[in-house]
Design brief:
Elements: H1 5-15, E1 21-26, E2 29-34, E3 37-43, E4 46-49, E5 62-63, E6 72-74, H2 80-102
Antiparallel strand pairs: 1-2, 2-3, 3-4, 4-6, 5-6
Length: about 100
């Protein structure tokens, strides 16, 4: 089941307090970026973020985005402040990895 445009709009709106959130379509789903860093995506109507050391402390549920993919953590979009905090923690870990790869 692909993620609907309505759910994409809802999820992006919920995370808009962070500021620089962008979303790109990918094969019926959507990839999520914060300050240009890929941190997660929308898969089957779920908001999933990459698992990092910094976001493990939140005790999130692991989900598989699609067959054969690595597990990711699922965000509860009804708790916007917590979801934003998790995205920021995820970004903090990923931004340094991205910087190293771009060099």
């Amino acid at each position: 089941m692909a993620t609907s445009k309505e759910f994409k709009d809802y999820a992006v709106e919920q995370l808009s307090a962070l500021g620089d959130i962008t979303c790109r379509p990918m094969m019926g789903e959507f990839l999520l970026y914060y300050h240009g860093v890929l941190f997660g995506g929308l898969y089957d109507g779920r908001v999933l973020v990459k698992i990092t050391e910094g976001n493990k402390r939140f005790g999130l549920t692991e989900e598989i985005p699609y067959a054969g993919a690595k597990p990711m953590f699922m965000l509860d979009m009804d708790d916007v402040p917590r979801a934003c905090e998790i995205v920021e923690a995820t970004y903090a870990d990923l931004k340094d990895i991205v910087k190293k790869k771009r060099k």
